[in-house]
Design brief:
It is built from five helices and two strands; from the N terminus they run ββααααα. By secondary structure, it is mainly α.
């Protein structure tokens, strides 16, 4: 895989197009979201964005991933107002049960 220009934080964005499997591309994005979530609440926007991209590539991969399910459910209810709508929309698209 060929890396693109460095991102402002010094990381490199990876081109996922050469990966032949949509499931593997999606799983990579879910794992990237998990890595961002481990960095704290400041990265919640990245988590939701990556999970939305992963869901667009392979909905089943995201729907049945335990991290994705718990992260989306949590961010849909307790996330900041900036990301809550996106998390709630993804929550509906993933057909997750309503959180009390």
């Amino acid at each position: 895989m060929q890396a693109e220009e460095p991102l402002p934080c010094g990381l490199r964005q990876v081109d996922l197009a050469p990966i032949p499997s949509a499931t593997r591309r999606s799983f990579h994005l879910v794992e990237s979201a998990r890595a961002y979530s481990m960095q704290g609440e400041d990265e919640d926007i990245a988590v939701v964005t990556l999970l939305k991209k992963a869901h667009a590539k392979s909905p089943e991969t995201v729907r049945f991933n335990l991290f994705a399910r718990s992260a989306v459910s949590e961010l849909a209810t307790t996330g900041s107002s900036v990301i809550r709508k996106d998390a709630q929309q993804l929550h509906r698209e993933m057909r997750l049960p309503a959180v009390a």
